[in-house]
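Posting for a labmate who doesn't have an account.
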Amino acid sequence: MYSYNDFVEKLNLEKHPEGGFFKEVYRSDETIKKDHLPNRFNGGRNFLTSIYYLLQGDQISKLHRIKSDEIWHHHYGSNIIIHTIDENGNIVSHKLGTDNLDVCIPQVIVKRGLWFCAEVEDKNSFALCGCTVSPGFDFKDFELGDFDKLCKIFPQHKSFITKFT
């Protein structure tokens, strides 16, 4: 059985601005030119990127959004609960994991532009996931949720926003 520290050390994970730890493991060497991407992108992007992402106990992935679709894959440990907020203010929670396929799924797709966050289901454990982004991730496309801004857009979710910002 592996520990949280085993993964941090063996995979050379580093702190992520949204919370938890990560390591980029793949960035395609081919790019899509800006002219062939939607206007929301300010330059060319790699076809695809992939990272390891690790959360422990009470760590959270703070509310954020990106300009590409993102697929989360469960690799090891506790289930992860991924919450999304759509443009109508609906919160949808997905349980990412493999221990009970009646309530969990091994991949969760987060559509571009949705606000989303994540937490470990078992606060006494941790989870290792993979995140695949296409067109590839660029920090220029990353927006960390601002408490005041999100509360103006979704006032009905103030307690949720408080927890995840």
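Reply:
Got it, the structure tokens are right above this. Residues 62 and 163 are 9 Å apart (CA to CA).
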